[in-house]
Amino acid sequence: MKRTGDQIGGSVMFASAPFVFTSLSPRQAPLETGWAFLEPWRETLCSALAPSKGPFYTGAPNGVSATFKLYPSKYKEPQFRVSDCTLCVEFPADQASRQDGARLQRLREAIEIFDRLSAVNNAVFVTLLAKAMEPDQRACQMPVWPTWKCTLSEPLAPDDSAAIKSCVTWAELLGCPADPWEYSPEFRDVMEKLQTRGVMHTGIRHNKVVTASCVSLYLEDSPNGNKADFAQGGSFMSSLVSGRSTCRSNVGAPELERKARLEHLAVVYETVHSFRNGAILSAFADASSIDRLTLVKAANDKHDACLEPLHWGWLAYALWGRTSTVSIPTLRLSPMDLTEELVSAVEAALQTNYPQPQRGSASLYGFVDILEGTELRPCRRSSLALVLSRDCRCRAYYDPSSMGSQANVVVPGYGICQVELEEGTIEFVSDEASTDITMQEATGSGGVRSLIVDFWRLEDDALVTRLLRLIGRNLKSLALDFSETSDDVEVDLSEVAVACPMLKELRLEGCNASISTHNEALRNWGIKKLEIYESRAVDGLETLLSDQSYRTARGLVELAFSAPPDSMNEHFFGFSYHGMPAEDNRLPREYVSALMAHRGELVIKEKFPVRPKLAMLSPPIPL
Fold it and tell me: Record's superkingdom (predicted)?
């Protein structure tokens, strides 16, 4: 779907005139008779609302839906807490209803009216749509802001134009391609009434216009799906992550293209399925235009690990591999179970530059240049034929002694596939035999700039810095949270300095910190912001802050530190706690003094802009 940000029916979804979003008091009185003019619109909307089944409910058999968060979730001023409410609107899929333009336009306008109502009088909004909400939302004492999830009520007919075309807009998919840009007179009359009702004096003016950033996609994929599901899932993932589909399939999956930039992509695992999740993670080897990536395991308890070592091999290859050019500014992993097996999997993947290393000589790894139109078959899905939609150089593994004329190649969005080698056209070139200087000297220019990890289990403290040595070379920001681990964790800052030499911001939570050796990397470490929370000890930090031979002592801009409540010292921050702990749990007095000695020091808040600096240094131009 090329025009991902198209609004339903081509409408801008809201009039552009600014109005006041209200700061509402707790749940107000029952519905007043003065709101009866909304009843026809309520009936139209409720006829299409599906029962709420949680925020990940799509209501569409194909698992794809468009979500509109029309009420802004970010404010310029502090606001009190609000509750989110997901309302699933099912658009008809049968031919007769999809051709009823007047009915579809009225449904679209009803969505806009009730979204505006949620801001004008939230209590009336909740009362009118109570049956479509969860019980806790109906009884909530906070404002309830709606999220509209638009789906199809059932699969489209095979001959429907939206099911046949390879590129459709959201308007075509939901049956509103011919809707007029103008609103109906009835709609304008209702909006004028809402404009004059219930406006409070505390709020923020905002032009309520939907943009592409307000549209989100949700794909639900089952590891037990058939080959059509796999083909469509691979096409969707490669298009979503890299901007275009890598392959065509023989099951009619459409070719997709994404042109908008992804602000945030979240992948939530409910089960850890090695084959399917490996295919998903392979898409990131060709990622483009993603600002923030989150990988989350929907774990029920701490014994349910985030990602298995096999999947970390895929991540290492895609994001930190020797030939990777992918750049994702921010990556978050939660929760994480750090083990020796996991770190070894990362080491093996980076050493071979292959996501699933096999035993054998380095000569078994290389590349295969595959031409557009070449047929591929996913491993373990040999009945599914994929056709490469563009020329592609694929990372490959080939053992002539056991694989005959077939090589395994990494295809973004589909995982490892098999390709038939042909002399003179499709050939395997091993790393040792390659004459490509670019490939021989590649060191991985891509990667992640900001890494956030939430740990649940840690097999050994030393594994933290060992993992960072493998993936932390280009990191600018690092946040590690150990507060959910059961044991005391110690992070060696001198080892972190070696592993992450370009680091500017470091946040540690729920661990102790130490400095084992004052090495050259530590002296040259250019940390600007250092935060250590819930720490019982930070050995050696006072030297790092006071000795001017350390770059950190000269350039640190922001320092934050806190100890756990049960180890806080009465001298820290100048106040005492009731029920102070034993003396051996307190922060050393000399350490607190070293920290407090820096209070009030002048620091460089931000660098002087380059353009004014150039203007000051440039010679004057004669008139």
Answer: Eukaryota
Cα–Cα distance list, 35 to 15, 142, 549 (Å)? 21, 21, 72
What does the block give as tokens for 602?
A: 């002048």
Give the number of residues written for the chain. 623
Asked which of 199, 220, 241 is the last residue of a domain, the reply is 220
User: pTM for this structure?
Assistant: 0.67
Mean pLDDT split into 10-residue runs, the chain, 623 residues:
30 28 35 80 92 52 61 44 76 87 90 85 85 64 77 81 73 76 87 72 38 48 54 70 73 63 78 65 82 79 63 89 85 90 93 86 87 87 79 92 92 88 91 62 67 92 95 94 87 95 96 91 94 86 84 87 64 34 50 67 61 63 56
How many domains does the chain divide into? Answer: 2
- Is residue 420 in a domain? yes
3-state secondary structure of 434: coil
The answer to whether residue 395 is domain-embedded is yes
| Spatial strand order in the sheet of 265-269 | 265-269, 292-297, 327-338, 447-458, 477-481, 505-509, 529-533, 558-561
Q: Which domain holds residue 172?
A: 8-220
> CA 157, CA 93: separation in Å to the nearest integer?
8
Residue 119, in any domain of the structure: yes
